[in-house]
Structure formats: C-alpha cells, structure tokens
GNAT family N-acetyltransferase
Amino acid sequence: MEYALVCPPDEGTTLRLDYRAFAYAGKFVVGGPGKSVIRTPDGSPAAPEWEPDEPLPETVNPDAFDEDVIAAVSFSADRTDPSCCRLRYVTVHAARRGEGIGPRLIGETVADLSAAGFERVKIAVNNPFAYEACHKCGFAYTGEQTGIAELELARPAAAPADAEPERYREGLEAFRETDGELSRAERRFAAERLKRGPPELDRSPRDGG
C-alpha cells in the first residue's frame, strides 16, 4: 500500500469510487475539497476477490472506477478559520476495514496539512469506531457537537493533542446517551473503551512511528 496526496483544496481533481464498496463515494466526485488516498502500489484492484452485494446498473461503466484506491479522505479549510482544516469524509473499502488503514491515512494526511501551513485539524464523527480511530491519530474530543449530533475532535497539525482520559470518556458517554441509535456492537465497543481509557497513538511514519 502507498499513500498519495491526490490534490489540495480547490484544484478540482475528483475520484470515482464504487459506491457499493465505499461509504460517501458520491462526495469524492465533487472537485472542491482536497483529497488523499491509500492505494495499491501497482494499480491493481484494492480487493480482487471482493464481490459486491448488488450489480451495477447497465448505465454505469465499472471501468470508470478508481479500483486501486483502498481508502480516501476529503478535506477543506474551515469556513470560519482559514488556519484550520477539516477532514470532511473518510472512507475505507468494505473488504479492507479493520486493517488499520483509516488511521494511517488520517495520520499521513495530517502531516501533509501541517506541511501546507495549517495549524489545526478538525473532524466530526458519528460513531464510537471512528471516534477511537481518530484518537489513535492524535485527535481529542473538544466537548462540542455539530448540529447533527456528531462529536467534534481536533488536534494541532504539527503534533498530537494531549490525551485527557476524562475528556475521552466524556465523548464515549455522549454516544451512550444516544443509545437507541447505536448498534449492539457499537454499544459493546463504547463500554469496553470506557473502562480502558484512551488508546495508544498510531503515529504516521513521518512522525517517526
């Protein structure tokens, strides 16, 4: 696998991801946000043996998809703070989830955003699994939520945020307060992490990790 910065914000480059394999696939067709990916080094398919649950419509050409993309993230400057960049959408191929690819992609992207001059990076998450992955990448819960009940996490671009066990647990408790919207696996995951506390950092290779 290799990391690549596809484009900075406003360059107009797009990605065509198979919507059957990637959540938020349609968001990467938009040219405005910046994008970065983890992809296969030789251009081969990300998951050669993966079989989708549904066929493509006859009007969709499968050859148009970027088959070598394993994971992708889109990002753009915060509308109220140009020194801050927001990670908008993070998605990993359905057959490659659970391999730690998402945290690696986020870490590499944050390193590029720091090099580009951003001072701070934010992301909003809507489930305990994404919450945990972002903490592994040096983000921390800010105590704030978006208008659609996503939890806001942030970190300095150049270094991980300070790990505060109580603030970490506060975010997990916020998910538990919406218990009816969590799956059984998400509820179990949140309960286990509440007992354990913040995870160890999964550092980008460019951080010396």
About this structure: The radius of gyration is 17 Å. Residues 101-115 form the longest helix (15 residues). The first strand starts at residue 2 and ends at 7.
